[in-house]
Amino acid sequence: MFLPGLQLSRAFYSEAVRPLLHGVRHSAARIGPGSEVLGFDTPRSADHEWGPRLEVFVAPADADRIPELDRRLSERLPRTFRGWPTHFEAVEGDHVGRMATTDGPVRHRVAITTVEAWCHDRLGVDPRAGLDATDWLALPTQALAEATAGAVFHDGLGELTGLRAALAWYPPDVWRYVLACQWERIAQEEAFVGRAGEVGDELGSAVVAARLVRDLIRLALLLHRRYPPYGKWLGSAFAALPLAATLGPVLRGALAAGTWRERERHLATAYEALATAQNDTGLAPPVDPATRPYFARPFRVLKADRFADALLAAVSDPAVAALPRVGAVDQHADNTDLLTDPRRTRAVARAALSR
To answer: Which residues contact 256 (CB under 8 A, 6 or more apart)?
Structure first.
């Protein structure tokens, strides 16, 4: 019977892993990559990168004991737990693991590290030292979601709770800036649905509409203080928002529409709903949420840059106010290999944000 991964990992730590860490001060959690961290795992997840797994953090003074602790777990962990193998065989090279039976030592997925090493490996920066605006904007929202979701099972080091609290959400001015840049993305393409459709390019119009729906979903999550996950789970995360019951059918209607006018009508409804939600945050003075014509053209738009302008005008930090309107790294880049490499994301963010 399927057991959600977070529950499996919590029990695995408590019953199988913790007894083998006697005498070692540590913290334990299930954070980082994995559908179970975000709470979206299903029985399908069990075919790779899922199972009895967790992260164990030791103090820097005990870092030289990591190989010893790794061997201890390999030799003494049970080969199955709650009916699931604790041994992981390598598939697709050595970077993907899949549960498998074994008669020998367990190739387990208990990652033993220090908090500092985990931060630099997963985030490229240690938030406990403080984050400036560029640090925040170099962190993909998927990485922030992975660091703040999941669960901490034991915080014997007293570090994980503070780390996750530091990353819980953007500072107010960074939040304003990220929202402004999301509105700016919408402003740049909202008129193209009608313009492409007007010349008979319904396919092009639909492609633009799909891009806008994706941006609107990300905007909805940001307005509700939720880090947008990557594409696979974007709709699942959106579905948990309070406005999803009313806005979801509208966005699906925009995607299913066969004509640009129908597409535009659904998008206009979504624009106005999210514009109202923006006003309700109190992050900036209210802006008229009604859609309007695009200059003299017969296209209905929000002119979303009005919301970007209002948000940026409300920014009090001069360093944030002076940033170009490119946003966080995953607002101007979407290559997976880039966004999962903290060294590259930081380099790209620094370059994009420079004047």
So the answer is: none
> Quick one: tokens of 4?
């959600």
Please say whether the beta carbons of 228 and 234 come within 8 A: yes
> Taking the complete model, does pTM exceed 0.85, yes or no?
yes
Residue (of 53, 66, 51) closest to 117 by Cα position: 66
Burial class (CB in 10 A: 0-12, 13-18, 19+), 3: middle
Contacts of residue 312, Cβ cutoff 8 Å, sequence gap at least 6: 176, 177, 180, 321, 325
**Separation between Cα atoms, residue 349 and residue 125, nearest integer Å:** 13
Q: Which residues lie closer than 8 Å to 143 by C-beta, 6 or more apart?
A: 122, 123, 339, 342
User: What are the pLDDT digits (tens) for 261-272?
Assistant: 999 999 999 999
Distance CA 148, CA 191 (A): 36
d(C-alpha 26, C-alpha 112), whole Å: 10
Of the candidates 259, 278, 150, 252, the one whose C-alpha atom is nearest the C-alpha of residue 203 is: 259
Note whether 333 and 347 are within 8 A (CB). no
Show Cβ contacts of residue 334 under 8 Å, excluding neighbours closer than 6 positions: none
Residue 97, pLDDT score = 93
Q: Is 149 exposed, middle or buried (0-12, 13-18, 19+ CB in 10 A)?
A: buried
